[in-house]
Specification:
There is one protein chain. The termini are far apart. A hairpin with a 3-residue loop joins strand 2 and strand 3. The chain has 19 helices and 4 strands. Helix 3 packs antiparallel against helix 14. The strands form 2 sheets. It has a two-stranded antiparallel ribbon with strand order 1-4. Strands 2-3 form a two-stranded antiparallel ribbon. The radius of gyration is 21 Å and the shape is globular. With 429 residues, the protein is mostly helical. It folds into 2 domains: 361 residues, no CATH class; 61 residues, no CATH class. Helix content is 66%, strand content 3%.
Length: 429
């Protein structure tokens, strides 16, 4: 079995891969309570979401380890889960069952694209700076949601939004958690985000803000309330096509960005064998995304936290398999996860949003079309409470500015399609 991972060829061993898998697991553990809280905002049962999130983390990580033999762990991705709950379900009034249908269909398309030249076409025809703007916009969007949910910012009849009441105990707890998360992340502590959640939760228990749990361990909860509850037929509506495209596009670029960053550090994809490993990792991600819709959660993606395991020496799929195996442990910790107050969870979204927003530093603002499109994409997503609207606004502006400056030939086919979709949706739907 060990020979399957070619440990000697990759200059590693079982002990190193085990420690790498444990490190990645600790760095990723935050996704369990965070994803469950976010998706429960869509009216889905929290207990079942805990189990489904863990199940997909186990399945996707082990699948990738065995299929692609890369040290890339996978779980339910951040960004799209917030868009699912606050954009589609709460914002547009789409039932969560139909929204899961959108996730499933995007997974099917992802699988098809992964096996065809369409994947390369999508990657190459959307400008790199626009991809960076999408990442930054999603970062701003999820950070905005977190600040709103913790009441650090609140609604205002005069200015739409304003600062919250910093004397409120819930706001103070969220600010404390945010400070911890930023500090631990800057110091590069292992499991920084989960550590901040745990310490903030302990403060909440001690202060009486949240009740201390009567128990910490229980048997796993059933996924039945959400598994296979998706509504595929309603998701096939013509008006949902842009939403399917957004899920597909975001998951694809999120995965490619993660693989590029982690792969560069570990020199995973630098030769012909590396190219095959990259392709297989994308295939594992695509299959997992499709199954996510069936399991009752949003799209699965490769996690940048895998870089923590790579730094510990992880070089093969064995470390990803170990990460998946370690995710069995939190299946029995439901009482602990239920005792974590939301204001200990949401500050993590702000830090993740900042990490995603940092992509803005690589954008070429000397290009007029990129500059104006980036502005509307990044501000459009949080201000319209929609990744779709922000992207389509940016595509429209990108098309117009290129026309204004006489650079029609620089308009990529994918951006033209998005711009036409924007005209259709904004002016006719």
């Amino acid at each position: 079995m060990v020979n399957l991972f070619k440990l000697k060829e990759n200059k590693t061993n079982v002990k190193t891969e085990l420690l790498a898998g444990l490190t990645t697991f600790m760095a990723m553990l935050y996704i369990v309570p965070v994803n469950a809280y976010i998706l429960s905002s869509a009216g889905m049962p929290y207990d079942a979401l805990i189990t489904a999130t863990i199940f997909m983390s186990i399945f996707a990580s082990v699948l990738n380890g065995l299929w692609a033999n890369t040290p890339i762990a996978m779980s339910v991705g951040m960004g799209l889960n917030a868009y699912f709950s606050f954009g589609l379900v709460k914002g547009m009034g789409i039932p969560w069952q139909s929204a899961l249908g959108i996730v499933f269909i995007s997974g099917i398309l992802y699988i098809l694209i992964s096996a065809t030249p369409i994947r390369r076409w999508l990657i190459e025809t959307i400008p790199l700076d626009i991809k960076r703007a999408i990442s930054a916009g999603i970062g701003a969007f999820i950070a905005f949601i977190a600040l709103e949910q913790t009441k650090i910012i609140v609604a205002s009849p005069a200015t739409l939004v304003t600062i919250g009441d910093f004397k409120d105990s819930g706001v103070l707890l969220a600010l404390f958690g945010l400070v911890l998360a930023i500090f631990f992340s800057i110091k590069k502590y292992k499991g920084a985000l989960m550590l901040s959640i745990v310490l903030t939760t302990i403060v909440a228990w001690i202060s009486g803000f949240a009740p201390f749990p009567k128990e910490f361990i229980s048997l796993p909860t059933s996924m039945a309330p959400i598994a296979f509850e998706l509504d595929i037929s309603s998701a096939l509506s013509l008006s949902f096509l842009p939403l399917i495209f957004i899920f597909l596009l975001t998951d694809l670029f999120d995965t490619l960005g993660t693989l590029a960053g982690v792969g560069m550090r570990a020199k995973l994809f630098e030769n012909e064998n590396g190219s095959k490993a990259l392709q297989k990792t994308i295939e594992a991600d695509a299959v997992s995304t499709m199954l996510s819709g069936l399991a009752g959660v949003t799209s699965t993606t490769s996690f940048i936290e895998s870089a923590a395991g790579v730094e510990e020496g992880g070089r093969t799929g064995l470390s990803a398999v170990f990460t998946g195996v370690f995710f069995i442990l939190p299946l029995f910790l439901l009482p602990f996860f239920k005792a974590i107050p939301p204001n200990a969870i949401y500050p993590i979204l702000v830090v993740i949003g900042i990490m995603m927003f940092s992509e803005i530093k690589n954008i070429d603002f000397d290009n007029h079309a990129t500059k104006y499109a980036t502005f509307f994409i990044i501000l459009g997503m949080p201000l319209t409470y929609s990744i779709t609207n922000g992207l389509l606004l940016g595509a429209l502006v990108y098309l117009l500015v290129n026309l204004f400056v006489g650079k029609v030939k620089e308009i990529s086919p994918a951006m033209l399609i998005l711009a036409v979709a924007g005209v259709f949706i904004f002016f006719f739907l």
